[in-house]
Each structure stands twice: as structure tokens, then as C-alpha cells.
Amino acid sequence: MSHEFLQVLWFILIAVLWAGYLVLEGFDFGVGMLLRWLPENARERRLMLNTIGPHWDGNEVWLLTAGGATFAAFPEWYATMFSGFYLALFVILVVLILRIVAIEWRGKISDPVWTERWDWFHTISAWVATFLWGVAFANLVQGMKIEVLQRGTWEVVPPEQITDGTLANAVHVMPGGFAGFFSLLTPFTILGGLVTCGLFLTHGAIFLALKTDGSLQQRAIAMSKKASIVSLVVAGIFAVLAQLLYGGHWLGWVGLVVAALALVGVVLATHAEREGWAFIGNAVAAVFAVVLIFSTMFPYVMKSSIDPAYSLTIWDASSSEKTLPVMTIVALTLVPVVLAYTAWSYWTFRKRLTVDHIPEQNAGLPMSFLSQ
């Protein structure tokens, strides 16, 4: 296999990893976003958390794998992205940690105020992380204020002087700090954040409709009907703008059409109360949204809004000819194992849950324990 083939292959594999993350972690975030609004009492909130309990930490492996694959296969992409997204990714990291702590600590103390406080932290962190992921992906589509600096002098290289030779002794950079953070927020990227909020909210509501029974299930079905319509409208506007303004590759139109048809199918399936088909449709929409995003980026991994010459291509960002073949062998060996145990986990915990599975009292320690 040639080096160029492996460069494209790993660009595709990273897209696959992000698609897996959005599909699997999407309903986890969606359940968290609904945690303070959908249930009527503490037992129903506990029930909602139990639906994602066996899966949420395993689903986050897809994020770690996507980040690790980017670092190993495209180190220049990783470095440029983390320098520009530094504050945004720091906020995402904080809310992801807060979400984990909220899930793990809510049941440690048997006190309603304690659990409600952590449930609020869970809900807020789910909304913030979901919105920021959408903003981040929209920036990859739109392009960012990336420049090329000469090593040593650290002066900006004029666009007309960009060649393979100059790039060998230069770095791609973009402003960090608060200025860089707020430069990521534009009408288009904010719309991208709303897309992920609508998509994940729908995903979570459908998942709850699949995994629960009784009155909570009926409220989840009602929520999925409303959220699916909002998701279709917002995602449709974003996808058309992304392809018309920043696209050009024919694969982007494929992603747009398939994602749109899938979201229409989600609306129809939720209103027909066919939760299984609705969940599949929303997952397909998430996958082809990634197809749309990565096709608008190709052959770049980071597009510059200052000048196209400053954009970072997959050819310039990738690892060496020795690294990519080794990574490919490791991926072909381990990815099937990951897929196998993920499938086993979902099959094992496939049954519906009801409030009858939830005890009346939390088994945690008394609140007085904290004052000892």
C-alpha cells in the first residue's frame, strides 16, 4: 500500500471513529440533556441513568480512540487543532469530567438535595458539551484563522511563498486564548451547535422510548416527536449551507441527501411510534452528517479562512511512511475486538427497564457522613 493511500485511509478511519462516537455517545448526551426535564420523580431519574449505565463509559472510548488516532496518524493536525481549539477543548474536557463525576457521585449520599444538585450538573454539562462539539465540527467545515509561521523567526509566511519546501520548516498556527475562542463563534458555527443539540436530544428521547416502559416511555415518545421535527429543520438548513458555501465534493451531496432522508424517516417513525426504526434513522443521519463534514474538508484537515494556501492538507499533516503501516496493522487487529465487545454489551443489556427495578430509597451514605 502506498503512503498516499494510507493517508486517505486514515482520514476515513478517523471519520469512522467520530461517526461511532456521535452515534453511541449521542444518546448518552441526549439522556443527560433530558434528565432534569422529562422524569416526574427521583426514581424515574434513576431509571434514566440506569438505561445508559452499562454503556456510557465504554462509548467514550470512541472519543479517546479518535483523538489518539489523530495524534498518531496526523500529528500536525492534532497540534494545530489543539492550539486553536485550546480553550474550547478545555471547556469540553471540564464538562465531560463534571458529567462523569455527576454520574458516579449522585448515588454516594442518600439525600435528595445531593442527588438533584449532581443531576443538574449532569444536565448542564451534557448541553454544553453537545453544543460545543457542534461548534467545533462546524469550524472544521467553515475554516479558521490559520496562518503559517517560519520556524526560528516566527514571522508569517506570505501565501504566495508557500511551497513544500517552506512548509517543511514552518508551522500552522491560529490564535488561542479568549480571542481565539470567541473567533470560533459565528452564525454558521452556532447553527452547527444547535444541530448537534437537536440530533442528540432526539437520539436520547428515542433511546429512552426503546429502553423504558410506562409513563416515562410515553413522555419520551412525545419528546422524540417534537425534537425530531426541530432536528430535521435545523440540520437541513445547516447541511445545505455547508455544502453550498464550503463544499464541492460530490460525496458531500451524498451525505446531505442520505442524512436528510434519514431525518425525514425519523420524523415519520417517531410519529408512528416505531422507536427501533427511528433510532436506526437517527444513527444513519449522524453517520452521514460526518460524511458531509469530512467531504467538505477533504483534502484538508484544517482549512484556513485567511488564505487557502495556509490550509493544512492530509499530505502535509500525516505521519511518516513507517508509522502509518504499523498503525494500520494494529487497527485491523484491535478494531474488530472493540466492535465485538461493544455489540456484546448492547445485546446483553437489551431489555427494557421500569421503575419497578428502582428501589424506593437510595442506598448511599447519610448526609451526616460529610460532616464527620
Automatic annotation (TrEMBL):
InterPro entries (UniProt xref): Cyt-d_oxidase_su2
Coiled coil: none
Membrane topology: Multi-pass membrane protein
Superkingdom classification of source: Bacteria
Pfam families per UniProt: Cyt_bd_oxida_II
GO biological process: aerobic electron transport chain
Keywords assigned: Cell membrane, Electron transport, Heme, Iron, Membrane, Metal-binding, Transmembrane, Transmembrane helix, Transport
Residue intervals passing through the bilayer: 12-38, 84-103, 124-141, 184-208, 229-246, 252-270, 277-302, 322-344
Similarity remark: Belongs to the cytochrome ubiquinol oxidase subunit 2 family.
UniProt-recorded name of the protein: Cytochrome d ubiquinol oxidase subunit II
